Amino acid sequence: MRRPGRRATKKRMLLIVNPYATTVSDRLKNLVVYALQGRFEVETVDTEAQNHAIEIGREVRDRGYDVVVAFGGDGTLNEVANGLAGTDVPVSVLPGGSTNVVCRTLAIPNDVVDATEHLLALVDDWEPRKIDLGRVDDRRFVFSSGVGIDATVVRRVDAHPRLKSRAGHYYYSWAAISAFYRQYMVNPVRLRVEADGRSCEGVTALAQNSDPFTYFANSPIRVCEGIAIDDGTLSLAVLKRAAQRDMPTLISRLFSERRPAARHRQVEHFDDVVAANVASISETKDGITRPFPVQVDGEYIGERTRLELSVEPGALTIVA
Fold first, then answer.
1. Which CATH number characterizes residue 272's domain?
2. Which of 56, 69, 108, 162 could join 103 in a cystine, given CB atoms 3.0 to 4.6 angstroms apart?
3. Torsional sign, CA 240, 242, 245, 248
4. CA end-to-end span of the chain, whole Å?
5. Which tops the pLDDT comparison, 90 or 219?
6. Cut 0.85: pTM above it
7. Concatenated DSSP letters for 6-51?
8. Higher pLDDT residue, 98 or 206?
9. In degrees rounded to 5, what are phi and psi of residue 118?
10. Structural domain for 118, as ranges
């Protein structure tokens, strides 16, 4: 109970801002900070390069912040999560990207003004909770990781940030169609996926830590089943082949609530996964193993010839 005439101590917030995110601007950042200062003692820092937010998160672990907020897209939150994983420092997020999957998954409004009001209201009902993080080798992810077609699309989109900002979901669609017909129907890298004592082969593998996999505008795209962000497991889907005749039925299932993609005849689904391996089984004419592209939370992180997937239960503290 507050004493009359005495102001409550404000919570300390570090706002990590990605100034290059799709909808972030100096004017918007200043408006957000001004609003947050009503209930928080706010410090801000801008990211300057890829993976900078990971470094910032690691540096501020023991500086007494009550919350660290990622203001940017899912990639910004991914970096903050990697920097603060395994600590009790609460993390939250303000939407500044083109899709903002984690915001929507955590029921944070997708509009930054509404999300700021939501964060302000949380001060009176401050209940941090734990969520899981997935892991690809030494890189963590909050909602998804993909190898194959999905990662190829992310790599292409990230290489053209202006088109990504202007065309949004339609540029993703063009990149997906282009990658499918130019690469994956011609000579795709084949993968072997092993999980829970089972093995299968395919051309794309998607791991989810939460549902949905992503969004197209306001429509959720669902691939895996039986997954929640705090259930201690991952779900994994493997597309067995890239064939034009499969696309009409597969694409319709991505947007279906009743007939999910996980049950498509060309998709192998793994539920309740705690560990899995993905390896390339394709070689060049010289006998060299061909690498496959990898993305985490919509950010391209390079190529691998094999990788390990795992889950870290309760690895991230969040306020949402």
1. 2.60.200.40
2. 108
3. positive
4. 24
5. 90
6. yes
7. -PPPPEEEEEEE-TTSTT--HHHHHHHHHHHTTTEEEEEEE--STT
8. 206
9. -60, -45
10. 11-127
